[in-house]
Amino acid sequence: MWSTLTALCFGMAALLLVVAGALKLVDPSGTVGALRALGVVVDDTRVRVLAGAEAALGALALAVTNEVIALAVALSYAGFALVIVTALVRGLPIDSCGCLGRLETPPGGRHLLVVGVALLGALGEAAEPTASLIERIGDDPADGLLFAFGVLMLTGAAVLLFRVGRRPSVRR
Questions:
Q1: Is the pTM value of this prediction over 0.90?
Q2: Residues whose CB falls within 8 Å of the CB of residue 37, separated by 6 or more in sequence, listed in order
Q3: Dist CA 153 CA 145 (whole Å)
Q4: CB count, 10 Å around CB of 101?
Q5: CA distance linking residue 131 with residue 144, whole number of Å
């Protein structure tokens, strides 16, 4: 049971990297603003390069799972956790954490919860790798699709948690 739960959390972590990376490729401004508030000198191009790497790592993790890929995913989420904790400890006035481009709220406990679950899933997968999402579908389509549904549900819940309390944007 634990290996399935860990694999689901790892699948969510991987899919979230794909979704978040893609959204930052389209609109990096939320991430640029969050990183600048932390004192990191970045521009749209640098954020887009990192976002592309983020999406590629997530896609790779969905296709192939091994210790190295799982550790790379874990390192990504450890970095995200560090950014969130730093922003919270410093009390920085960040309007959007930048996780999903500009679609979410300021960094907070909800972000730490999602990032923590993703980090634990990645560490668990690194310790005891299981079949990737794509491998599961290839090995047993019915079981693999059920697993994929679970990953989609967890990822959807994570995105909703990022967006809870988001103020509607005002166009001028």
A1: no
A2: 87, 92, 93, 94
A3: 12
A4: 22
A5: 10
pLDDT tens digit sequence for 80-123: 899 888 888 888 767 666 666 565 667 778 889 999 999 999 99
Closest CA to 119 of 56, 65, 59, 70: 70
Q: Alpha carbon 53 to chain centroid distance?
A: 12
User: C-alpha angle 113/114/117, rounded to 5°?
Assistant: 85
Contact predicate 6/119, CB 8 Å: no
58 Cβ contact partners less than 8 Å away, ≥ 6 residues apart: 13, 14, 15, 16, 17, 18, 19, 20, 21, 73
d(CA 98, CA 16): 13
Q: Enumerate helices (H) and strands (E) in the chain, giving the number of each.
A: 7, 0
- Model pLDDT for residues 2-20, shown as the tens digit of each residue: 788 999 999 999 999 999 9
Phi, psi at 129, each rounded to 5°: -60, 140
How many Cβ atoms sit within 10 Å of the Cβ of residue 102? 20
* DSSP summary character for residue 167: P
